[in-house]
Please model this.
Amino acid sequence: MVGMSRFLPLALLLAAGCGSESGPARPVIAVIPKGTTHVFWKSVHAGALKAGQELEVEIVWKGPLKEDDREDQIKVVENFANQRVGGIVLAPLDDAALVGPVEDAVRAKIPVVIIDSDLKSDRHVSFVATDNEKGGRLAGEEMSRLLGGKGKVVLLRYQEGSASTMNREKGFLEAIAKHPGIEVVSKDQYAGATTASAIAASENLLQRFKAPDGLSVHGIFCPNESSAAGMLTVLQSAGVAGKVTFIGFDSSVQLLKALRDRQMHATVVQDPITMGYLGVRSMVRHLRGEAVERRIDTGATLVTPGNLDEPRIRDLVDPDAFRKWLKE
Model:
C-alpha cells in the first residue's frame, strides 16, 4: 500500500481541483514535460491523463514553457518533491543538470520515472521512451536510399544536453557513415529550443550553401519538431522546398502538409500518447509493488508521402488525437 506521505494534503488537492470531500485523496502523480507548447508534449499530456483516469490517480501537469529553461524545470521537480507527491514522471531537459534534483527526490522516497530523454543516473524506476538511436538510423537509412548513396548532407542539431535528440543525431550519422559516397558537410550547428531560433539557425546555415540554382547540398536532417519546422519555413521562403531531400523527426500539422505536398520527404514519428500513458502506468505499478521493466521502448516509425494515408500511420500522426483528453 502507498503511504500517506506520498499523497498531497487534501486541502492542496482541492485547491488544485483534485480529490473530493466525499472520499479520500487519490495518489497524485506529477508529470513534468520538457516544455508545454509543442504538439508532442500535448500528446504526452493526453496519454498521462488517459492513464490517470483508467488507473484512478490524479495527474498534475507542469513544465517550463520553453524547452531550454533548465532552471525552471529543476524548480518544478523540487517543488513537487517538497509537496510530497506520490511520484514524478519526468522528461529531463538536460541529462546531467536534472540528475541532482531527481536523486534528491528519490532520497526523499518519491519515486521517479523518466520519459522521452534519458538521464545520467540509475536511480529512477524506469525509462519509457522511443529508441532514439534507432529512429535516427531510420532517418539516415532513408536519406541514403533517397540520395542513391551519394551527395552532400547537412545535419542541423537541436540543442546540447538533450539526450533524446543527441541519440537521434548519433543514429543518423552512423547510418550515413555506411555510405562513403555521402559527405556530411555540416553537423555542428544547433537549432535551439524554439521554431523561431530554428528559423534563424537554418537561415545562417543555408547561407553557406547557396548556389545559382538553389542549394549546393542534397539532403537535410532535423531531429525534432521545432528544428524541422524552422528549416521547412526557410526552405519554403527560399523557394527550394522539395528540391532538396529533407527528413525530420516528429509530426505537426505543418510537417504533415509538407509531406503531402512533397516538400518534405520523410519524418520519423514517435508515439507520444503511448509514452505519456506508459510513463504513468509504470509509476502506478511501482507504487502498487509490482515489477516494472527498466526500459520500455514506445516505438519509432518512418512516415513518407507514400504511407501517410495508411490507417496505422494516421493513428500515429492524427493532429487532433490529444484534444479529447485535453478538452481543447
Observations:
- Confidence is low (pLDDT under 50) at residues 1-22.
- The longest strand covers residues 182-190.
- The longest helix spans residues 39-55.
